[in-house]
Amino acid sequence: MKKNIFSCLSFAVLVLPLGILSSCSDFLDEKPQSDFTQEATSGDALKSKYTNIEEALTELQGAYEGFKTDIYEMENYMSQDVQADNCYVGGDGINEEQVDLLTMTATNAKSALMWSQYMSVSGNATNVIENTKLMDSSIASDDEKNEVIAQAKFIRAWIYFEMVRQWGGIPMVRQLIPTITADNLDELYPIMYPARSTEEEVYQQILDDLSETTIEYLPAYNKGSNTATQGAALSLLAKVYATMGDKSSRDYSKVVDYCDRVIMQGYRLVENFDDLWQPSNKFTSESIFELYFTAESPNWAYWVLLKETDDGSVTWRRYCCPTHDLVAKFDKENDKRYASSIIWKSAPYNTYWPADNYPFAYKIREKSSDIILLRLADILLLKAEALVELNRSSEAIEIVNEIRQRAGVAALNLEMSQDEARLAVENERQLELFMEGQRWNDLVRNDRMLDVMHKHKDHRGQYIFADLQAFHKHWPIPQEELDKNTNLIQNEGY
């Protein structure tokens, strides 16, 4: 018998009164067209659909492929760099402009797209986890199963972490669902359409998925990978502990500990910052987790952000245009990151800058460019952030100076106040990690979103977020999800 895992985004049952549903036997007897990620089982018994470990690995690879969709080839930059003070929206579109101007509504297509793709990836990961657990020992050893499960748990933890930061509490479906019938609909409805778990519950699930057992069954690398490794899981744990709960109650010692465990894996900063962004440089010593692309299997982010053809043509407005505020922060003469992060070209428009000298995001340069989702510099600066909170500011600034030395800019004085050190780390993260999908979460994590965005200006030098409120740290739950799932409650302010 086969079974499936329910994917919240794809279940298409009509929302009708339960009395009507219970009488619609003809409707319920039909095989659902898009209810689950797999064909459903009959009855209550659950049995793995995999007949060998290769089938589990194939579906695991399918879950990884979910990263190579809109969520990381475009939307990661929109929600992190455009929504913050790093970039103007750049291109056209009402939905995109709402992200840039922080005027999101529940009907915004960006929110719906990201929600659905995140849910799809997490649902696929859960499907792999649960089906692999059910595999008979005669066709797969415990070690083989545990290695697959560890990979899938990393994927689910990653996606849940993205979602809990974006929307707060989310509905979590972590089990296989039998076939829906008139007899079991009332019982299964709250499982298929659950209420939102609290943020605390989501974080606990993330920690459960990233247990020491999970880490044990992941491979140990000291260079980049496009699949889960111990370094990637430890990095994710460091970020989780740096984010969950109120800032005043966080265990920053654990953040430092997990960062140190990442460092002990053997990753090294590349000597030349620009080497990170050369399309031919795959999986460097600094990379921890990255998405792999080739000319035959291209990354279309370069087309959205930089150019449309190999000759560098620009005929329409590119997205994610660097802001005046961001450009002003770079030491343009000395900071090697400046020319590696932003390229200036002529453009047939002057929306934010003069047409004959227009800036473009430059870290994704070709269709074969990889997208680095985790790298050592991020983890080092996260450790510095935690050290500041532990009143070890001089140690934190030593790390910042290591990053600055590679960039070619002057070292900072080690003797500074805690508040000065906080700002130094924040500024370094902004310049080092520009257009890597970090800025918005950095501001929210450190309770700096309101302070920074209230001071942010548009391209005319006008303040634009005077009315920004705390609830803007989260996006609205997509209206189409509220319509499907009556157990969902909208976020405050929307």
Which helices and strands, and how do they pair?
Blueprint: E1 4-5, H1 18-23, H2 25-29, H3 53-65, H4 70-82, E2 87-88, H5 94-101, H6 109-133, H7 142-167, E3 176-177, H8 185-192, H9 199-209, H10 212-216, H11 230-241, H12 252-263, E4 287-291, H13 301-305, E5 321-322, H14 324-329, H15 336-341, E6 342-345, E7 358-361, E8 371-375, H16 376-389, H17 393-407, H18 418-432, H19 439-445, H20 449-455, H21 479-484
Give structural notes:
- The protein is mainly α and 494 residues long.
- The chain is 46% helix and 5% strand.
- The chain is built from 21 helices and 8 strands.
- It has helices at 18-23, 25-29, 53-65, 70-82, 94-101, 109-133, 142-167, 185-192, 199-209, 212-216, 230-241, 252-263, 301-305, 324-329, 336-341, 376-389, 393-407, 418-432, 439-445, 449-455, 479-484; strands at 4-5, 87-88, 176-177, 287-291, 321-322, 342-345, 358-361, 371-375.
In spatial order, strands of the major sheet run 1-3
Distance between the termini: 44 Å
Which percent bin holds the helix content? 40-55%
Poorly predicted segments? 1-43
The fold-level CATH name of the domain at 4-198 and 475-484 is Serine Threonine Protein Phosphatase 5, Tetratricopeptide repeat
Mean of residue pLDDT values:
91
Question: Beta fraction of the residues?
Answer: 5-15%
Helices, by number, come to 21
Architecture (CATH level 2) name of the domain at 4-198 and 475-484: Alpha Horseshoe
Q: What order do the helices and strands follow?
A: EHHHHEHHHEHHHHHEHEHHEEEHHHHHH
Radius of gyration: 23 Å
Biggest sheet, open or closed, and with what strands and sense?
2 strands, antiparallel
Shape: globular
How many E-type strands? 8
